[in-house]
């Protein structure tokens, strides 16, 4: 590693820097530079990763100014890889891998082989030695799990079928890297090596891997969750946090020291094991701050390793290498998606996620330098290719939607990618009338569809992901499979004959597109949607949505309501606070829309008892008009109770002693026939 960098030079900050402070200065200034780079990237609408990489470059040894200790930062970055792989393991299960094994396992193996061959061919064009060509091919063939998870999460695709397959795909690649790192010293080490020696070394490495995995699954799956449960029950919070850190890093260290495996694999298995605990959500919450911090350090450390002068001198080779990583690997993975009939969107998600290289490519490159196979310039070129591909990878995900539309527009290509996919028969269109269309069968959409089914209201589900659509079909619901935001699927939902369209998607951008399309198809259709932000409310109202629900706002109102009830506040006061919060949260709906929401809420509360109410109108000649309920003393004088009030088309259901009655008000009363008759005579002015 040290051979890749020039000798340390004096730092302009404080003159020559003492060895005992260089690490601290590097750490602090790298974070400062990463923060500044992230803010600039955000202002320019670029991925924050780009800013972190540039920040690392600024404090690295190859740019003017402060010269950071890149070797020390690499060690901190290794900690970041451990935490990120630990977090990946927390959210991953072998059940998930088994569900996608038919595509992920053979796909990863074939892609590594094809990527290595393509990299070797490119190195031959560069004039590299065959051994260096193999190293380049192996480095190009392994993508970054860290970058994949981050970009899948940012794109909202982590839990999609394509996201699950891509994650399983890279887990297989990570396991293959373990084997590669064992084989490289045997093949390229000093002296002649026989095939028997290679086979023996490989067998030993596989045995160590199997032994460690078995130890974690058999012993660790029992001991670690039990230990964390005891710590959570009997120890303070900081000790639980420390326990999570110790398990993540300690397991990774044990994998490296005792079994000669990678830190990343050890941390990943630790996450898988403790992910089975009932405390998995709390463990994930405690690990997130460490994961986020060290992931930034990881990207900054990558930026520190890049030598701009070397990349500039070999700019043609850099462009060719980036093209192989981002275009060549994309084409390879799209071809494999067609081979395994993975589906159009799934194949595009996998191809986008794997069109980059990262941490394991660095490790392979470092091994090549240590064995004398790669030169410093060649290793720097690999680093440059990794940095550029990481920086641009998030943009590749933006092509998934338009390319899905383009490929699905070709019946031949669509059949090629989905020839083995199970299809769902669309419902008979002639029977679609007076129905409710629910777009999105996630948690929210499922609840809506279940209630409609129980009420015998015809319901049609529109769902993009085939496995989720199959769940809706198994629940006995008619289903249309397709992306309502990017296809002609709404044309088959008979919106012009529907009663309501419910857009249950969390993605506000997609919901806006669906609402605009639906409004064009059926101008008079009632549209209900969800929104997470005030900007989303405004955009959806502009798109034609009639009513909106903000889940977080409604949850906050209910928390407020329960809190004030426990504090002894009167129901009417609580309702006034709730109305104020809703008025501000749904300001974009306008006065009519907000009033309609409040009236609807009042009707909902009163619906269970309204049939039992006796409504009496306050007469023009009633001497009690203008009096409060306390002054009227209705209950003492007649025995009837006033529980609701209708005034100017609005319903109030929380009445107290200060409520003033006016002529023309309709008062909802409860009581016996005699009591109601007496109250009617009093209020009517008879």
If you had to describe this structure to a student in words, what would you say it looks like?
By secondary structure, this protein is of the alpha/beta class. Helices cover 65% and strands 6% of the residues. The protein is built from 29 helices and ten strands. The chain has helices at residues 19-43, 48-58, 70-90, 94-99, 101-126, 130-141, 145-154, 161-188, 195-234, 237-259, 263-274, 280-304, 308-313, 315-339, 344-353, 359-370, 376-397, 400-408, 411-417, 443-454, 466-474, 508-521, 534-542, 551-566, 571-585, 590-606, 629-632, 634-638, 673-684, and strands at residues 436-439, 459-463, 479-481, 500-503, 526-530, 547-549, 614-617, 641-647, 650-652, 666-670. It has a six-stranded parallel sheet with strand order 3-2-1-4-5-6, sandwiched between helices. A four-stranded antiparallel sheet has the order 7-10-8-9. The longest helix is centred in the N-terminal third of the chain and has 40 residues, at 195-234. The radius of gyration is 32 Å and the shape is elongated. It starts with 18 loop residues before the first helix and ends with a helix.
Overall pLDDT score: 81
- Helical segment count: 29
Q: Measured on Cα atoms, how large is the radius of gyration?
A: 32 Å
* Straight-line N-to-C gap: 100 Å
Class from secondary-structure proportions: alpha/beta
The proportion of residues forming helix, as a percent range, comes to 55-70%
Strand order in the largest sheet: 3-2-1-4-5-6
Beta-strand proportion: 5-15%
Number of β-strand runs: 10
- Sheet having the most strands: 6 strands, parallel
Give the uncertain stretches in residue-range form: 1-10, 12-17, 603-611
Described by the principal axes of the CA atoms, the overall outline is elongated
């Amino acid at each position: 590693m040290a051979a890749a960098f020039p000798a340390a030079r004096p730092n302009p900050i404080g003159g020559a820097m003492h060895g005992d402070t260089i690490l601290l200065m590097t750490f602090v200034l790298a974070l400062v530079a990463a923060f500044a780079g992230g803010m600039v990237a955000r202002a320019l609408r670029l991925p924050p990763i780009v800013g972190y990489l540039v920040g690392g470059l600024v404090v690295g040894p190859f740019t003017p100014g402060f010269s950071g200790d890149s070797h020390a930062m690499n060690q901190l970055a290794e900690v970041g890889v451990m935490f990120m792989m630990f977090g990946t393991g927390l959210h991953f299960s072998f059940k998930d891998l088994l569900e996608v094994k038919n595509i992920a396992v053979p796909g990863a193996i074939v892609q590594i082989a094809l990527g290595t061959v393509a990299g070797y061919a490119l190195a031959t064009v560069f004039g590299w030695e065959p051994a260096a060509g193999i190293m380049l091919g192996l480095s190009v063939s392994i993508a970054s799990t860290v970058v994949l998870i981050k970009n899948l999460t940012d794109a909202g695709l982590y839990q999609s079928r394509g996201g699950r397959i891509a994650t399983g795909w890279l887990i297989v690649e990570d396991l293959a890297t373990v084997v590669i790192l064992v084989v490289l010293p045997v093949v390229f080490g000093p002296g002649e090596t026989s095939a028997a020696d290679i086979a023996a070394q490989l067998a030993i490495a596989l045995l160590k891997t199997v032994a460690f995995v078995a130890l974690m699954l058999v012993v660790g799956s029992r001991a670690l969750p039990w230990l964390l449960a005891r710590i959570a029950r009997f120890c303070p919070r900081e000790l639980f946090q420390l326990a999570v850190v110790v398990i993540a890093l300690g397991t990774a260290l044990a994998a490296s020291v005792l079994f000669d495996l990678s830190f990343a694999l050890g941390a990943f298995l630790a996450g898988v094991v403790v992910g089975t605990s009932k405390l998995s959500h709390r463990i994930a919450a405690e690990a997130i701050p460490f994961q986020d911090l060290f992931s930034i350090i990881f990207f900054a450390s990558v930026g520190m390793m890049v030598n701009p002068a070397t990349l500039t001198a070999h700019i043609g080779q850099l462009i060719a290498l980036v093209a192989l990583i981002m275009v060549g690997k994309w084409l390879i993975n799209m071809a494999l998606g067609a081979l395994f009939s993975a589906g159009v969107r799934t194949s595009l998600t996998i191809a986008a996620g794997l069109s980059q290289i990262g941490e394991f490519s660095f490790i392979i490159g470092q091994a090549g330098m240590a064995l004398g196979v790669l030169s410093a310039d060649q290793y720097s070129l690999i680093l440059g290719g990794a940095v550029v591909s990481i920086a641009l990878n998030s943009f590749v995900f933006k092509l998934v939607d338009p390319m899905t539309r383009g490929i699905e527009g070709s019946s031949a290509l669509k059949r090629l990618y989905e020839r083995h996919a199970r299809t769902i028969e669309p419902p008979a269109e002639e029977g679609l009338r007076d129905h409710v269309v629910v777009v999105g069968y996630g948690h929210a959409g499922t609840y809506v569809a279940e209630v409609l089914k129980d009420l015998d209201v015809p319901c049609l589900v529109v769902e993009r992901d085939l496995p989720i659509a199959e769940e809706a079909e198994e629940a006995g619901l008619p289903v249309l499979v397709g992306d309502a935001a990017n296809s002609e699927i709404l044309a088959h939902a008979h919106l012009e004959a529907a009663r309501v369209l419910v857009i249950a998607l969390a993605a506000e951008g997609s919901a806006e597109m669906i609402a605009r399309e639906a409004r064009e198809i059926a101008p008079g259709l009632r549209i209900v949607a969800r929104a997470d932000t005030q900007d989303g409310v405004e955009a959806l109202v502009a798109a034609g949505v009639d009513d909106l629900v903000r889940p977080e706002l409604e949850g906050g109102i209910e928390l407020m309501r329960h809190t004030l009830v426990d504090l002894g506040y009167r129901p009417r006061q609580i309702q006034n606070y709730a109305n104020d919060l809703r008025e501000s949260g749904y300001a974009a709906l306008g006065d009519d829309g907000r009033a309609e929401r409040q009236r609807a809420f009042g009707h909902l509360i009163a619906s269970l008892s309204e049939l039992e109410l006796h409504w009496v109108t306050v007469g023009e000649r009633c001497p009690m008009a203008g009096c409060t309920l306390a002054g009227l003393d209705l209950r003492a004088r007649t025995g009837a109770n006033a529980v609701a009030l209708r005034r100017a088309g609005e319903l109030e259901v929380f009445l107290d002693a200060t409520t003033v009655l006016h002529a023309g008000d309709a008062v909802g009363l409860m009581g016996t026939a005699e009591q109601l008759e007496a109250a009617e005579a009093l209020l009517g002015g008879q």
